[in-house]
Write a structure and sequence with these properties.
mainly beta; Phosphorylase Kinase, domain 1; six-stranded antiparallel beta sheet
């Protein structure tokens, strides 16, 4: 049985997000570009950890092995101040309280309720504290670098699983 959550300690030094929208584009002979949206939206997340000793990295390395590549599905808790401020603020990430899969949304405009992207399918309450992303490893291969002085460097690529 795999763990449900990525270990929170040690914490990543950086969180790099990519927002992916599925669109198809084509260019006519005249140069006009046509675009069409044909699917949903998902996030990719890269976690970069500071150099650490092997004993500090061991819980994360064991967790990665437990996932068996892209097979394992788990959750990552995001810091509450990803946009520099907490609460319902433009730029912050959010979940909906009635969504068991914890789809990740970004607040794009304030209002009642705030505008979220992508547009949610349900009308649950917006939660901005303890936000989670349901994800798996993006690749079957995870590289762990052992550097000078025995320090381990980790960079984990994740993809949202909706």
């Amino acid at each position: 049985m795999t763990s449900t959550y990525l270990p929170s300690s040690p914490a990543p030094a950086t969180y790099d997000f990519k927002s992916n929208y599925r669109t198809q584009t084509s260019m006519a002979v005249s140069g006009k570009i046509l675009s069409r949206k044909y699917g949903g939206q998902f996030y990719e997340l890269t976690l970069a950890y500071p150099p650490m000793r092997r004993d500090q990295a061991a819980p994360i390395i064991a967790f990665l092995e437990e996932q068996e590549g892209r097979f394992g599905i788990f959750r990552v808790r995001l810091p509450d101040d990803m946009a520099g401020v907490t609460g319902v603020q433009v730029g912050n990430f959010a979940n909906l309280d009635d969504d068991p899969n914890k789809k990740l949304y970004r607040i794009t405009a304030l209002g009642v309720p705030p505008t979220l992207r992508p547009m949610p399918l349900t009308a649950g309450n917006v939660v901005t504290s303890g936000v989670e992303m349901r994800c798996s490893l993006k690749n079957d291969v995870q590289m762990i670098t052992l550097g000078n002085k025995g320090l381990v460097s980790l960079r984990i690529n994740l993809i949202e699983r909706v």
